[in-house]
Each structure stands twice: as structure tokens, then as C-alpha cells.
Amino acid sequence: MTRILILPGSARQGSLNLRLARIAAACLLAAGAQPHVLDLRALDLPVYDGDLETSGGVPAGAATLVEQFAAHEAVIVVSPEYNAFPSPLLINAIDWATRLPAHKAAMNGKPALLASASPGPLGGLRSLLVLRNFLSINPGLLVLPQQFALGQAAQAFAPDGSLADPKQQASFEAALQALLQMAQRLRA
Ligand SMILES: Cc1cc2nc3c(=O)[nH]c(=O)nc-3n(C[C@H](O)[C@H](O)[C@H](O)COP(=O)(O)O)c2cc1C
Questions:
Q1: Which of 3.40.50.1950, 3.40.50.360, 3.40.1000.20, 1.10.645.10 would CATH assign to domain 3-187?
Q2: N or C: which end of the chain has fewer CB within 10 A?
Q3: pLDDT tens track for 119-177
Q4: Residue 36, H or E segment
Q5: Is the CB–ligand 1 distance for residue 83 below 6 Å?
Q6: What is the mean pLDDT of residues 50-69?
Q7: Among 121, 179, 183, which Cα is nearest to 149's?
Q8: CA 61 to CA 70: how far, in whole Å?
Q9: Best mutation site among 81, 122, 126 for ligand 1 pocket (most ligand atoms within 8 Å of CB)
Q10: Is 80 near ligand 1, meaning CB less than 6 Å away?
């Protein structure tokens, strides 16, 4: 079973991105994979501050995050867009993780799928460009060309938790399949 780490960039109650992350988890389970949705807000990860690192070292949450990357074969990041940028919750968590040398073995070359959801028409698409650079360049994740941006997301979810528009559901599932296939190819 392919182990997939899912990182929602928002942990707020009613988060659209968290809802999309849960759809990803349900689809992956149905496809025979083993998804794990990680709550970044639950980790010990204060806002990055070099003085804090000098005085207290890297917080325990960073090691937990790196361990989670190491324990999974692929990653899905589902982040909100704030002013055309990925969320501070996500950026801060990854910044801390990169302070640990072990992040290289845990993240380098690991396939990653990007997704976002927004009440706006573009679905957070602009932030995915930034996120692609951010996750590829230093952590070295292998970010797939496929991605998924869910626009008008406040109206996009069906009562059963899937996407109301079957075309959108199929498009998201195709992106998830591409990630699964890449993970399986890399394992072989
Ligand atoms: C400071 C701030 C900036 C935002 N900027 C954008 C933006 O650039 N593009 C966009 O589509 N939505 C933007 N939004 C709206 C978010 O997409 C919306 O709040 C979304 O629901 C947040 O994700 P969540 O539901 O997963 O928590 C912004 C929201 C805030 C609070």
C-alpha cells in the first residue's frame, strides 16, 4: 500500500482546503493507498525566529514533520492562497523542517501533488506557482506537473463530502492517480 502524507495548509474549522484534503484521503483509501492527514497546527512550530532557534534549538514539531515525510512515499499539499501566496502555517512548518539536516533524505526526490481551494474564481491557482518553486528548490520535492485548484469552493462540496461537480471530482481523482502512479514507479 502506498503511504501518502496529506498536508492541509489550513486547520481552521470549516476550512475549504481541509475539506479538499479529506476528499483526497477518501479517494486514496478507495484506491487502496494509505493516506494520512497531518494537522500542522497541532505540531510544536512557533513562527520561525532565528533567536528562538539559537536559544532553544529547532522545536519538536519540526522533527515530527520530517519523520512524517520520511514515513510516507508521496505527499499532497492542499493550501489556501493568501495574497497570491501559500499559507503562513504551511510555509512556516516547511521552513522549520529545513533547519534539520534529516529533511534532505526525507524530502528530496519525493513526489508531491499540489492542490488549493478558494471561494474565489481561480481557486488559489496563483499560489501554486509559488508553492511549486518553494517545495522544489530547497526541500527538493518532485512536484508533479499535474495540480488541482478548486474555485468557488464555498459552493463546490456535495453533502456527502465529495465534489458536487462530477467533472471536478474526476479531474481531482486523475491528479491523485498521477501521484500514486509516480510513487509506484519510483518504488519499482
Ligand atoms: C489575508 C487573506 C488573503 C487572502 N488572499 C486570497 C487570494 O489571494 N486569493 C484567493 O483566492 N483567496 C484569498 N483569500 C481568501 C481565502 O482563500 C479564504 O479565506 C479561504 O477560505 C481560506 O482557506 P480555508 O477555507 O482552507 O481556511 C484570502 C484570505 C485572507 C484572510
A1: 3.40.50.360
A2: C
A3: 999 999 999 999 999 999 999 999 999 999 999 999 999 999 899 999 999 999 999 99
A4: strand 34-37
A5: yes
A6: 98
A7: 121
A8: 14
A9: 81
A10: yes
